[in-house]
Amino acid sequence: MIEFRNVEKRYDDQTAGSALTDFDLTIGDGEFVFIIGESGAGKSTLLRLLMGEEKPTRGQVVVDGVNVGRIRPSRLPYYRRHFGMVYQDFRLLKDYTVYENVAFAQRVVSASPQGIKRRVPRILEQVGLADKADSLPAQLSGGEQQRAAIARAVVNGPLYLLADEPTGNLDPAGSEEVLRLLEEINRGGTTVIVVTHDVAVVNKARRRVVTLRDGRIVSDREEGEYGDA
Amino acid sequence: MRNLPYMIRQSIRGIRRHLGTSLFALAIMVFTIFLFDGAAAILLNLGNFVKEAKENVGITVFFKEGISDQEILELRDRINAEPQVRRIRYTSAEEAWENYKKVYFAGHEKLAEGFADDNPLANSASFEIFLEDMSDQKTFASYLEGIPGIRKVNVSNTVADTLQNAASLVRIGTLVILTVLVIVAVVLIANGIAVTISQRQEQIHIMRYMGATNGFIRGPFLIEGALIGLLGGLIPLLVTWLAYPPVVNGIRSRYVNLANIFAFLPRQKVFAVILPVSLVLSLGIGLAGSAFSMKKHLKV
Asked: Are residues B262 and B196 in the same domain?
């Protein structure tokens, strides 16, 4: 479970207000949540706090009972292994094949070579890229690249999947495919948090929607739609 | 350990990414370590020469005219009883003349026959005194000068002093040049690694979010520095290993007199010192370059 308890985040060079203010949010295990809001609403800060890249100025971010702000730097990598991350620009390693990109995530967590050989093809099969294992990212469409990125994010079996504008660079068909995949992963028990501007995706999914404005939550609706606030 | 092959592959990729800088750093490393190896070989031999020279150079004591053999014996026992004395050798006037003839009339023995009944070195009977510690020579010479029956005390340390001065000069010169070269090598390696870090910034960011440990992120950069360092150490070691015997033989044949007085150290003996020191030095330079660059450019 993820809890933001009365969190305030203020940056040193911030002149106008805070990135997050009086921020209380609880996300239960296995939930699928959209975080929406304009640029500067605090979405990126929320992700950075969750990944332990930033510490709250006040309040606590608690994940599975652990106060993230108090994790020792040497333990932070192990905490982060509970998360998978998907980006708008995919961030695949350009000179690695699809297989190598996914295997890389396994190598980072010191998985055994046998484990990598067993797990990577299975994940690629799951995201529909088994036949593209030897392709370089530049040889794939945007949708395929994002699916490869999703495979990389989930290959280590994270408890939480954070997706930052995952459909931002995709056409409607690609977006729909990515949403379908995220839902499938969520059905497997992984908590999925999607930060997005994509009206179509949010409205199609009919999931919990948390709307941020100026670092505050202005609406939090189950089966919400874009612009409910 | 499981990730070591991956890290080595990454570091080789890194070197290939900025091959020019890597080769330049490698060249400076080779030059630095070669200079170190050469200087170390010279210093070790000079040290050996100094040691030999010190062991073979003593204080020479001449006696007053008319001193009896009995008095000389008493003098010998007295001097020999001093704790600073390692060894004392008596040379009679006849022996001195024989030695002189051997050195200065070699090949012209007939010329010396004119002195057959009149030893020109009649007053040159002497003691050669070798001390335990050469630094006591001056004090001990003053003490000897105060003993009745002694006419003259010669302290001949010139060879040892000259060699020692030469060794100090080589040592200081090498140290200065080495310091500059080591700094240049560290900076060059650091620059090369900074290039790799900047090119891999995005990958590093992704790795951090994936839960990569600091060791996993830093490993390839450390190995990259270590590889350039080690290679830069091994090449000059190999060259020195191959070049040492012909160089020593060349000196021996060119300076026959020097070769008769001093023995050059065998190659194995020189390498027992310079091999481990060079490897540690080159590895140290490589790792220092990596560490310096990571501290500046890599936030994990």
From this structure: yes
Inter-axis angle of helices A172-187 and A142-154, nearest 10: 20
Read off the pLDDT of residues A88-105 as tens digits, 9 standing for 90 and up. 999 998 888 999 999 999
Q: Given B156, B181, B204, which residue is the final one in a domain?
A: B156
Residue-number span of the structural domain to which B182 is assigned? 4-53+160-297
pLDDT digits (tens, 9 = 90+) for A190-210: 999 999 988 889 998 899 999
**Per the confidence metrics, is the pTM higher than 0.80?**
no
Quote the CA–CA distance of B92 and B94 in Å, as a whole number: 5
Instruction: Enumerate residues 218 to 257 of chain B having a beta carbon within 8 A of any beta carbon in chain A.
Output: none
**B270 shares a domain with B210:** yes
B49 & B62 share domain: no
Q: Which of B104, B132, B156 is the last residue of a domain?
A: B156
Instruction: Based on the fold, state whether residues B176 and B119 are members of the same structural domain.
Output: no
Residues of A with CB below 8 A from B206's CB? 85, 91, 93
Residue range A117-163, pLDDT digits in tens: 999 999 999 999 999 999 999 999 999 999 999 999 999 999 999 99
Q: From CA A89, how far away is CA A170, in angstroms rounded? A: 10
Q: Please, what is the average pLDDT of chain B?
A: 83
Please name the residue of chain A whose CA is at the shortest distance from the CA of residue B217.
Answer: A108
Smallest CA–CA distance, residue A168 to chain B, in Å, is 19
Domain match, B10 and B46 both: yes
Contact B2 A83 (CB under 8 A): no
Whether residue B206 and residue A91 make contact (CB cut-off 8 A), yes or no, is yes
- Considering only CB atoms, which chain B residues are within 8 Å of A79? 211
* CATH code of the domain containing B123: 3.30.70.3040
Same domain, B143 and B170: no
| C-alpha angle A195-A225-A128 in degrees, rounded to nearest 5 | 55
Would you state the structure tokens that stand for residue A22, as one six-digit string?
């009086």
Answer yes or no: do A74 and B214 touch at CB < 8 A: yes
Chain A residues touching B208 at Cβ < 8 A: 77, 80
B152 and B63 belong to one structural domain: yes
User: From its phi and psi, is residue A223 left (phi > 0), alpha (psi between -120 and 50) or beta?
Assistant: left
Give the HSE-up count for residue B123: Cα atoms under 13 Å, Cβ half-sphere: 8
Residue B282 has pLDDT above 90, yes or no: yes
Same structural domain, B131 and B223: no
Query: Cα–Cα distance between B165 and B274 in angstroms, integer?
Result: 22
The answer to whether B210 contacts A79, with C-beta atoms less than 8 Å apart, is: no
B48-80 pLDDT, tens digit per residue, is 877 777 666 678 888 887 788 888 888 889 898
Name the domain count of chain B. 2
Please check the confidence at residue A83 and state whether its pLDDT lies above 90: yes
